[in-house]
């Protein structure tokens, strides 16, 4: 059996060697063709060579790709240049872990290519630039790059690209602390990807789970991740399934660690490993090994920790090895577990130095907690206390921000003690100066404060009086104006109905006798228009049928004459309304419906009117384009909203608007009975 295994291994090595020989031969052949050709033919061979040795540093991929890009630009083959530039940028940050080099090359290329064509390639370039800015902890520049990438993706209507970039935008906004915009971007990303490709729609969903975790909503985050895991098991693509399950299990393991659930942490990490080694991505494999080493060591599982440590040691001897996040901290946990405290302290400090200027606050506070434990074991109580205090300080800050459902950057986090010391010194100096001058200045100070207080109180009383008086005058003017409008509308409506309306009716009857159908149609149409104008000016249905029936009638009328789909639920609230209250509320409904028809571009509208706890509550929702309520109020030409607010004040109605771009509009009215 051993001989068979050895034979198979030898044959495998021979096969790989033969493949390398064939590749080397092909590379030499292509180089010879490049040297013996010109113009388009030469570019074709250069393109073939670059694609053949993609990411193979031993064949000089970097220099060959750069030569291909330069020659493509020289021949004005911009698309081909951008394709190879995209691959080179990915190679620089993914394989070489050198984002600065990637961005330097990106900026150089962007100066040489036009921005009015090749939108798909430009979108990819800007997306990769954003990813490199993230690695450099520059979220502002990352956001700018992703937004530019999204603009280009829209130009070619690449739905997958649009969804992926929106997910990246949401992640950056989350890092920047703008959780409301982040959640909206992630939801938009999911809406796009769920329609174009369900097997990548998990990305924004996973990002949203991380957003929940950052705000302390760990149960909701876990529930969402379990949904992602269940969905991923049914993916057709094994590659996608492995990537999704690896990332989702790993993120949940990290959450369990933060929550102190060590058994669940290890369970999720063990599940992650199954899929990480199927992704064919070295970063994932190293990340899981580091996570397992840390977890096993922290929980006293030394045999398993030793096995993982040996794996990492074998990897570290490999030419392509690189240190992933928390590598030193995991090694430090291992050294601590076997009693090598000095080595553990050295590795822990190295991890802290790596993290302290980043925004990975959970990692920072974990590093502080570990160092506190190590220095305590070494008997260095002052250093242990220093790190323990920093650990609790950061943890309390994170928990406070989570409770407020917000997130802010912890600026100068590790200079806090120094700044506190400086502030304390300054305060002691100020206190000393105040003590020397207090006897001399105390009466002047209190006398001046008393005078200022009296002046301020007098000024505030007068200001409040004038403001209240002005508000009363404004309210009285508004009431009189609206009352005058209603009276004038009623008068004009009656004049039209009794005067012009009667004459038009006679005219319609006479034209009918003449036998001229066109004249008859014109007369009847004019009469109907006049009646419609009269009804708008003075709603007779309000007097005859009451408020509830009148509102149903106006909704049915708008529904019949527009393409908007209306639904309504209107309780009979007539007995709760006085005549003026009915009129004001009816006019507000009328104005809201007019605004929806004219401006919202909505497809559907719902109207609910019901009695609740002694109040009449009305809610009107539409799925239109939305608007900024504050901007509408500032716009002097927008009279509709101002009129609604004035009527609401006069009628004592609580008026509330919720709206946003592409989010529709919800208007709530509450009238006390």
Task: Write the topology of this structure.
Layout lengths: L1 H34 L3 H14 L8 H14 L3 H17 L4 H12 L8 H17 L3 H17 L3 H17 L3 H18 L5 H13 L3 H15 L5 H21 L3 H15 L5 H17 L3 H15 L10 H11 L3 H15 L5 H18 L2 H23 L12 H99 L2 H21 L2 H6 L1 H15 L3 E6 L8 H22 L3 E9 L2 E8 L6 H6 L4 H13 L2 E7 L3 E9 L1
Parallel strand pairs: 1-2
Antiparallel strand pairs: 2-3, 3-5, 4-5
Helix pairs in contact: 1-2, 2-3, 3-4, 4-5, 4-6, 5-6, 6-7, 6-8, 7-8, 8-9, 8-10, 9-10, 10-11, 10-12, 11-12, 12-13, 13-14, 14-15, 14-16, 16-17, 17-18, 18-19, 20-21, 20-26, 23-24, 24-26
Ranges with pLDDT <50 over ≥5 residues? 1-18, 404-420
Shape call: extended
**Continuous helix count:** 26
Query: Based on helices, strands and strand pairing, what is the structural class?
Result: mainly alpha
Structural Rg: 36 Å
Average pLDDT confidence is 76
Spatial gap, N to C terminus:
93 Å
CATH architectural arrangement of the domain at 546-672? 2-Layer Sandwich
Question: For the report, how would you describe the main beta sheet?
Answer: 5 strands, mixed
Helix-residue proportion: over 70%
Fraction in beta strands:
5-15%
CATH evolutionary superfamily of the domain at 546-672: Histidine kinase-like ATPase, C-terminal domain
At the first level of CATH, the class of the domain at 546-672 is Alpha Beta
CATH topology-level name of the domain at 546-672: Heat Shock Protein 90
Total beta-strand segments: 5
Strand line-up of the largest beta sheet: 1-2-3-5-4
Organism: Poritiphilus flavus
Signal peptide: 1-18
Protein name: histidine kinase
Domain Histidine kinase/HSP90-like ATPase: 580-673
